[in-house]
Write a structure and sequence with these properties.
The protein is of the alpha/beta class. The chain has 16 helices and 15 strands. It has a single domain, classed as Alkaline Phosphatase, subunit A (3-Layer(aba) Sandwich), CATH 3.40.720.
């Protein structure tokens, strides 16, 4: 019997598709660049949803948000979450772990959800590491850069180090500014990216050499607040720092009305009383656009260094020889492009498109232009493990592409769901050439020729000469929805 391949699933949070060196050559990401050169670099990869929780639960369950129910940030889908990919891998003999970010439920609920009890004490996380949602071992924390007060396993790790961490986290001193971009005074050896790398490495090295394992290595960066530890921030100042162009005059005239509303900071039409987790114009960040770009580049180069350190430790003891490494991000970041920051509803490539690299045994090096979705990781992992892919799985097994074979599923397109609140539901179809965006409660829509107009400045939705194209894409969208929907279960009898 062929030995099962180990799986190291590395994700970042809110990283643009072009924020790696193989896309932006002056970025110094030697580890990711090597994985891209020696593995499969998917240049047209998209998120199942450009919001954290929906995407991450899609990775966990192999289903789109409309199926698993965690449709937005702040949603606690119940019952939750059904059969998970790590559960299926465990049934196949894998040891499973998750180190870093979870965000499968609202952030406020994460400690209780993990612990299975209300208000677990800080001491609980010194000795409890799972199981959780199919993972044998979990070490997690909440928050991003300075918006955090360290808790859960990350807090326990800092306290084991014997450091006074309050001076690094301004929420603990009353000096928090979510719109500050620049340097952060936390030493890199105590940053949560180092914690994720160190604990991931320790867990993998603790596994028996003859056992198969799947480890999710989940970083919090380069998510806002956009601050970066030294010396990484200063080093990034050596790079070209050309901010993305903001909103052009008249840019939203041919787009759905919410673009114009949102560009003025008004999401009130879609607010369900809990805010809209979406894109915003942030004038304070516009004024710091170069510093924000410098901090982002610094965070990404620091991440690459931490990933490289982990891979070097594993290689030194032969743990990479039978391992497949997958790298992606849950969604992108507008970063001031078109006048927006963060992620969400404006259906630009900035937020919907993500980096996606697969490297390891059995992977044929190539730069693939296939239109794929990171939801496809689920079916791909199961196929790698020799697990029969359940009928409820909505993604595709990318195995044939990884082996250098012809794309085996058609059409060459993907869907992106975005229901930021229960008041607005956006569905996007992306093909090799075009993007179509429809809305549940509006006759407005979007249609772009991505080849001729990659910045999506001209909406063809209402142009008469595009009517036939729109009809064909609407049909393709419907067929892709039907393909993804089912069947959910196998038939067992005639009646």
């Amino acid at each position: 019997m062929t030995q099962q391949r180990n799986i190291l699933f590395i994700s970042t949070d809110q990283q643009r598709w072009d924020h790696i060196g193989v896309e932006t050559p002056f970025l110094r990401t030697p580890t990711l660049d090597r994985l891209a050169r020696e593995g499969v670099h998917f240049t047209r990869a998209y998120t199942p949803s450009p919001l954290c929780t929906p995407c991450r639960v899609s990775w966990l369950t192999a289903r789109y948000p409309s199926s698993h129910g965690a449709y937005s940030i702040g949603v606690n889908a119940a019952p939750f979450p059904g059969l998970t990919v790590p559960q299926l891998l465990r049934q196949a003999g894998y040891r499973t772990a998750l180190i870093g970010k979870t965000h499968f439920v609202p952030r406020a609920d994460e400690p209780d959800h993990f612990a299975g009890q209300a208000d677990p004490s800080p001491e609980f996380f010194r000795s409890h590491f799972g199981p959780y949602l199919g993972f044998d071992h979990v070490e997690t924390s909440r928050g991003h850069t300075t918006d955090a007060v360290p808790d859960m396993h990350y807090r326990a790790w800092l306290e084991e180090k014997g450091v006074n961490y309050a001076e690094w986290f301004p929420k603990m001193t009353g000096a928090y500014d979510p719109k500050k971009a620049g340097s952060w005074n936390i030493p890199p050896e105590f940053h949560d990216s180092t914690w994720v790398a160190e604990r991931t490495t320790d867990w993998i090295l603790s596994q028996p050499s003859d056992s198969a394992w799947c480890c999710w290595m989940q970083f919090q960066d380069p998510h806002n607040p956009i601050v970066c530890p030294e010396p990484w921030f200063t080093r990034a100042g050596e790079l070209p720092l050309e901010p993305f162009p903001g909103e052009r005059p008249g840019e939203f005239d041919d787009k759905p009305a919410f673009y114009r509303e949102a560009s003025g900071g008004d999401w009130s039409r879609f607010d369900d009383g809990r805010g809209v987790p979406c894109a915003y114009p942030v004038r304070e960040l516009d004024a710091q656009a170069r510093a924000a770009l410098q901090a982002t580049y610094g965070m990404i180069e620091f991440l690459d260094d931490r990933i490289g350190w982990t891979l070097a430790q594993l290689k030194a003891v032969g743990r990479l020889e039978n391992t497949v490494v997958v790298f992606t991000s849950d969604h992108g970041e507008y970063h001031g492009h078109h006048g927006f920051w963060y992620k969400g509803l404006p259906a630009y490539e900035d937020a919907q498109r993500v980096p996606f690299i697969v490297w390891g045994r059995g992977v044929v090096p190539q730069r693939s232009t296939a239109v794929v979705n990171t939801l496809d990781t689920a079916a791909t992992f199961l196929a790698m493990a020799g697990v029969e892919i359940p009928p409820f799985t909505q993604g595709n097994d990318l195995g044939p592409i990884l082996k250098g074979e012809k794309l085996h599923f058609a059409p060459d397109c993907t869907l992106i769901e975005n229901m930021a609140t229960d008041r607005i539901y956006q569905l996007t179809l992306v093909t090799r050439m075009h993007k179509l965006v429809v809305y549940r409660d509006s006759d407005e829509g979007e249609l772009y020729d991505l080849a001729a107009d990659p910045d999506q400045l001209r909406n063809l939705w209402h142009e008469p000469q595009s009517a036939d194209l729109k009809t064909s894409l609407l049909l393709a969208m419907t067929r892709e929805q039907l393909r993804a929907q089912g069947p959910r279960h196998q038939r067992s009898a005639f009646a």
